[in-house]
Structure formats: C-alpha cells, structure tokens
Amino acid sequence: METIDQMSERHIRESEAGLQRVDELMKRAQQLSTKDEGQVETERLLGQAVKDREELEQHLAELKSRQESDMAKLAEDGRNFREGLEKIKTNIERLLASLL
User: Fold this and answer.
1) What is the pLDDT of residues 1-14, one digit of tens each?
2) DSSP per residue over 15-75, as a string?
C-alpha cells in the first residue's frame, strides 16, 4: 500500500510532468502562431498561458516545500493545482486546434 509520502511524491512527479507537457504545447503553439493570420490574438492567449503556467509552477514549489499537518488541506491544494494545470493544457490544445 502506498504511504502518504509516496503518494505525495507521485503527485509531485505527475504535476511536474504536466508542466513539461504545457511547455511543449506552448512551444508548438508559438511555432504555429508565426504562420497564423490572427497572430495578435494567438500571442495574447499564449501570454496568458505563460502567466498561468508560472503561477502554477510557483504553487507547485510551495506545495513541495510544505510540511502540512492538515492532510485534507494539502490534498485540496493539490487537487486545485491539477485542475488549474488541466485548464491550461485544454486551452492550449484548443489554441493549437484552431491553428491547424
């Protein structure tokens, strides 16, 4: 059975992998945006994605450094992080689909 520490580490690794995926999606969108006629809007959306991604990266760093005694609060914070990460990924994927 997985301990709390092991589960926490697994979630952190999954979150870091999610951030890397966002980076890959943003890079691809930036490459495609140079070919797009609506480049201004694309750049605005990418700028927002970069800002959101930076906030999530900071949030993940805070989660990793906490020695939370309230496991329910820590679990809720982790859930909120993953929801934010999914939102960014979905928005970038929609942007990519519109560019293709």
Assistant:
1) 777 677 777 878 88
2) HHHHHHHHHHHHHHHHHHHTT-TTHHHHHHHHHHHHHHHHHHHHHHHHHHH---S-HHHHH
